[in-house]
Write a structure and sequence with these properties.
Structural class: alpha+beta
Number of helices: 30
Strand order of the largest sheet: 3-2-1-6-5-4
Largest sheet: 6 strands, antiparallel
Oligomer: single chain
Length: about 900
């Protein structure tokens, strides 16, 4: 139990696995110096290990608990001293004694907090037998108390930090005031909730903000503290900056040490509003209950009425007082008492019951009710019923009239039909199916239904009126000819109406009547009374119609001939996107038939990766009426390859601006897309050539300088060192060439990939490439990589390092050894690289606008091409980064790069 409490105390200090801290490191340093020991530790012991908060002379940060000398030290209250662990029975076989770090001497003072818990030890260790003198032991004990003080103060600082964060982030009003309620410190919630700024609030008192009606209450409440109360819980209306009042519930506590008040206020305005709304709702429900035109009541589980509204009692012929003396048994007919018992059982078991119930009026007549009752709190039932006696008899009468109407329809041969536009489902009545000569189980479809109509005028007419009804909501009443399933030609009268919702046609419905006998009689009568002149006029009209049809057919044939002659895919669609025409080029390309591709059948030859974008663009054009323009790939039937096409469509609109037709085309742009891809690859080659030309100049020049120095020296040691430098430069050059080839291969096939690059490794590789020039100029390169790992294309990062360092070497001041400093750190989630030197610098007033342009040089007399900075800027900005420069002539230059 004691160990569990000790561990709990240790964990409460929240110090385990924390970062090194200077205060603790000073203690271990002092202990080491005072005791003249090579190893000094602050050790904390938890469930499984001893962990070192501070360590001197030891590399490991923790050891298993069972190996800890300190485990014995915390068992006592004084210093544990082991002069020679190799001779101590407790430790002689310990691997810390038999192996590294070869412990011989150990002295540990327990770290005991104010509650008496030993958290660990301050200990000193030597690799040879030793002993401490009296002064050293006393100093070790004093330092151990200092460690405990540091641990406790560290925890207090953390708690204070947490309190400050709570004070700042809390949505409740938190403040400190004097005894008169004048604010001395407030949290940001005051401004958020009340709108007043901090300066105003710190210059006023609570009593000046509360409602006039509450001010006397505030004074009385504050006087309670003078009477000996420590805490009060008042509720005041507090004025906001806008002039409105918010209801604040306060908890005010007196700090007797200084007489200040610590106050916490919570905005309960919304709760108060909801309480009032609940009261209003209850009042409304009460009014609704009393004034409902149906029967509203409550009854117990035995059926006794507990409450009833006046209107419900009146419908039954009773007063409210009379009905409250009755039971459900008294108003339910005797032959339905069993059903009443079932109702009571059902509502007890299920908690609700609904349906129809028969009751007796006071005069003995039968009444029919539609009820929906629920069990409340398993104690009583809330009943709500509507008198449907009259409706019941009307429904019976309506059913009778429906039967008569159906019989009349059979005699008159009138049927009904309905078409759901969204689901494309059609329903026919039995009479309609009989007129079409099909079985009762026949399920009609839109296309087959239209095909029943006689080809020509009748079929064209029904197609036209259907489209017009769906698009414009126009009703129709047409006499048409159809050929039934038995091949019999008959006349019918088709009447239809459209039902719209939110501007979209949802349903078509109407009647269908066999008028064959009437129509044949009408036609015979018209034929018998027609005069010769009428016959002549009819003949002229027929001739004109035929001529007009011939012209229309000729124009359609001319359009089709033109469309079939164009080496593009041409198509048209209805306003809803239903494709109704393709030219011959479509069928030749896809190998599909018209039936396969009508409507949205084109989806099956579209590349799967392009389907969603294509459908989305087409749907958007259909909804907005805007032109359609999208690139996609169609599968060619001849070889199965997908080729890129540019799909375009423009709407034809009527005088109202409504789309009545879409005309579209699909242009083969596959060769164009391939040309763009080729241009991209050529660009990659150019970029690659630029990097090769620039990045290899330095290594090659460095190798040339080393060779020159080899030729001019006879000192063997210098020649060996120069040959080593030459070998490293050669290896670096080969590695650079290999990486450039890998980058080229990657970029020709896909986007270049990011790698986890080590800044120090990149720097070393660049130093090897420039080793000759670094040696020749006596350059000093320093680096401070706070962020050592950088996720970036390695070849680009090497090129950036190379360009920055080689420029610093090239443009060094004469007779001044170059000093180059490279740093890295994280800034706002991105890597920030800085390259600084003490070189010639750049006159930014003259050259600032041309810093990163191609073929721009700023110093004469150097082998410069003006490529490096241009290439570096492009490599950085390609991946969303940026580069800036600061420079002063004859002082130096600083480049800052954000990757």
């Amino acid at each position: 139990m004691m160990e569990a409490e000790r561990l709990k105390a240790l964990h409460n200090y929240a110090i385990l696995d924390s970062s090194p801290e200077e205060d603790f490191d000073r203690v271990t340093k002092l202990a080491s110096l005072i005791c003249d020991m090579p190893i000094s530790l602050i050790s904390l012991i938890d469930e499984e290990r001893q962990w070192f908060k501070s360590k001197l002379g030891l590399e490991v940060k923790e050891t298993p608990k069972e190996l800890a000398f300190c485990l014995y030290a915390i068992a006592g209250s004084g210093i544990l001293e082991v002069e020679d662990a190799s001779k101590d029975e407790r430790f002689k076989n310990n691997i810390l004694v038999t192996g590294r770090p070869d412990i011989r001497f150990y002295a540990g003072c327990p770290l005991i907090d104010d509650n008496g818990y030993a958290l660990g030890t301050l200990c000193v260790i030597d690799r040879k037998p030793r002993s401490l003198n009296t002064n050293q032991k006393e100093a070790l004990a004093i330092l151990a108390k200092e460690v405990i003080t540091l641990i406790i103060e560290r925890r207090k600082k953390q708690e204070l930090k947490h309190f400050d964060r709570l004070f700042t982030l809390s949505d409740d009003l938190i403040c400190i005031s004097d005894a008169e309620g004048c604010f001395k410190k407030i949290n940001p919630a005051f401004e958020k909730v009340l709108g007043w700024d901090k300066a105003f609030l710190l210059s006023t008192c609570l009593i000046n903000l509360v409602h006039l009606d509450d001010r006397q209450t505030v004074e009385n409440d504050l006087h309670q503290f003078a009477d000996g109360n420590d805490q009060i819980f008042p509720v005041y209306g507090v004025r906001t900056k806008s002039g409105a009042y918010k209801t604040i519930q306060w908890r005010i506590t007196l700090d007797k040490s200084n007489g200040e008040l610590f106050c916490i206020g919570r905005d309960i305005s919304l709760e108060k509003l909801r309480e009032q709304q609940l009261k209003d709702s209850e009042n409304k429900l009460r009014v609704f209950f009393e004034n409902s035109q149906g029967l509203m009541c409550t009854h117990d589980l035995d059926g006794n009425f507990l409450s009833v509204n006046s209107a419900g009692a009146a419908i039954l012929g009773y007063s409210t007082e009379e009905l409250l003396k009755l039971n459900l048994v008294d108003i339910v007919p005797e032959n339905l008492q069993t059903q009443l018992k079932s109702y009571l059982s059902e509502i007890i078991e299920q908690g609700y019951s609904k349906g129809q119930m028969l009751t007796k009026h006071k005069d003995g007549s039968t009444m029919i009710w539609l009820f929906n009752n629920i069990l409340e709190n398993k104690v009583y039932v809330i009943g709500n019923a509507i008198d449907i006696t009259q409706r019941h008899f009307l429904e019976k009468k309506l059913e009778h009239l429906k039967e008569i109407l159906e019989q009349t329809n059979k005699v008159a041969r009138v049927g009904g039909w309905e078409f759901d536009v969204q689901s494309q489902k059609i329903r026919w009545t039995s009479i309609t199916k009989d007129i079409h000569g099909v079985e009762l189980n026949y399920q009609p479809e839109l296309a087959s239904s239209i095909n029943f109509y006689k080809e020509g005028k009748s079929r064209d007419t029904v197609t036209k009126v259907l489209n017009k009804a769906i698009s414009e909501g126009v009703s129709w009443d047409e006499e048409l000819q159809l050929i039934d399933a038995n091949g019999k030609e008959i006349w019918v009268r088709a009447i239809g109406n459209a039902e719209f919702m939110d501007g979209i046609c949802k349903r078509l419905f109407g009647t269908f009547q066999n008028i064959d006998d009437y129509k044949l009689l009408q036609l015979s009568l018209q034929a018998s009374i027609a005069t010769k002149e009428e016959l002549n006029n009819m003949l002229k009209e027929k001739i004109a119609i035929v001529e007009l049809q011939d012209q229309t057919i000729q124009k359609i044939q001319e359009f089709k001939f033109l469309a079939n002659s164009i080496p593009l895919i041409i198509w048209t669609s209805q306003p809803d996107g239903h494709i109704d025409y393709y030219n011959q080029h479509w069928f030749d390309y896809t190998g599909m038939t018209l039936e396969q591709t009508q409507g949205w059948g084109w989806e099956r030859v579209l590349h799967p990766e392009d389907l969603n974008d294509c459908v989305k663009a087409w749907t958007e054009s259909l909804e907005t009426g805007n032109p359609y323009n999208v690139e996609y790939r169609f599968k060619r039937a001849s070889d199965g390859f997908y080729r890129w096409h540019l799909g375009r469509a423009h709407p034809m609109k009527n005088e109202k601006g409504e789309v009545i037709k879409w005309f579209g085309s699909c242009t083969d742009i596959d060769e164009y897309k391939r040309a763009l891809d080729l241009e991209r690859k050529i660009g990659h080659f150019e970029d690659y050539n630029l990097i090769v030309a620039h990045n290899l100049r330095g290594p090659a020049g460095s190798m040339g300088m080393i060779i020159t120095m080899l030729e001019t020296t006879d000192i063997e040691t210098e020649r060996v060192e120069l040959l080593s430098m030459l070998k490293q430069s050669s290896l670096s050059l080969n590695q650079t060439l290999e990486e450039l080839m890998q980058v080229l291969e990657i970029r020709l096939n896909k986007d270049i990939s990011f790698e986890e690059c080590d800044s120090a490794t990149i720097l070393k590789g660049v130093e090897n490439m420039l080793k000759g020039e670094i040696f020749l100029k006596g350059a000093v390169i320093s680096h401070y990589f706070e962020s050592a790992k950088i996720s970036y294309p390695k070849i680009y990062l090497e090129s950036i390092f190379y360009n920055m360092i080689s420029n610093s070497l090239k443009y060094a001041r004469p007779d001044v050894p170059p000093e180059i400093t490279i740093t890295s750190k994280m800034s706002h989630g991105r890597t920030e690289l800085t390259f600084m030197d003490n070189g010639l610098g750049i006159d930014l007033k003259r050259h600032g606008n041309n810093m990163f342009k191609l073929n721009k040089v700023f110093h004469r007399g150097f082998d410069s091409k003006g490529v490096g900075l241009f290439m570096t800027k492009n490599q950085i900005e390609t991946f969303g980064g940026n580069i800036t420069v600061k420079s002063e002539p004859n002082v130096g230059t600083e480049f800052k790069i954000i990757l």
